[in-house]
Design brief:
mainly alpha, 192 residues, 2 domains, 74% helix
């Protein structure tokens, strides 16, 4: 047991040393070189691209944000079907990107595309929850949907449209508990 923790300490120390050397080398690079390095990393690795874009707010049209959100939903909810009924890894960073993009679309008053994306997230996300052993990603999905629900509570669209969306969301929830109470309360609030 002690050997195992000693190896972990050595590995962490070695990784930390390599990171320090990399930081020092990057500090000597020009701005243009740094931009080139970051661009290459972003092109080669979607997770690195997501981390970089999370640090710098990229301007994007509503159509571009919708496209990027669809991609993030696909990445967040992806899993290997051979891992069904296990606690498989999932992309929590992609869920954060979905949440961020939905919030940006809400700020741009793009509520109907947001509602459409939320339906897609409920459909794919609840399938991922259903396929997993403990549904660890449920909180991530609910965090993504929370700003959507909060915006719709302010009645920025016709009540009938909000009710229909709530009903569609409840129907797409394959596990029956993702934001279930919130959706039912919202639907009840806008009953005719």
């Amino acid at each position: 047991m002690a050997k195992r923790s000693a190896k972990k300490t050595v590995r962490r120390a070695q990784r930390g040393n390599a990171e320090q050397r990399l930081r020092a080398a990057l500090a000597r690079c020009s701005k243009e070189e740094l931009i080139e390095i970051l661009s290459e990393c972003a092109s080669a690795d979607r997770a690195a691209c997501r981390r970089i874009t999370a640090r710098v707010e990229l301007p994007a049209s509503p159509d571009e944000l919708v496209r990027l959100t669809r991609e993030a939903i696909a990445e967040a909810t992806a899993f290997d079907e051979r891992d069904i009924n296990r606690n498989f890894d999932y992309d929590a960073e992609a869920y954060r990107e979905v949440q961020h993009n939905l919030q940006r679309l809400i700020e741009l008053k793009q509520l109907r595309p947001v509602m459409e994306l939320a339906l897609e997230l409920m459909d794919q996300g609840s399938y991922q929850v259903e396929a997993s052993d403990e549904g660890l990603m449920t909180e991530d999905i609910e965090s993504c949907l929370s700003p959507v629900l909060e915006t719709l509570r302010r009645r920025e669209l016709p009540p009938a449209e909000i009710r229909a969306w709530c009903t569609a969301m409840i129907k797409r929830d394959r596990v029956g508990f993702v934001c279930d109470q919130e959706l039912r309360a919202l639907r009840k609030r806008f009953k005719a």
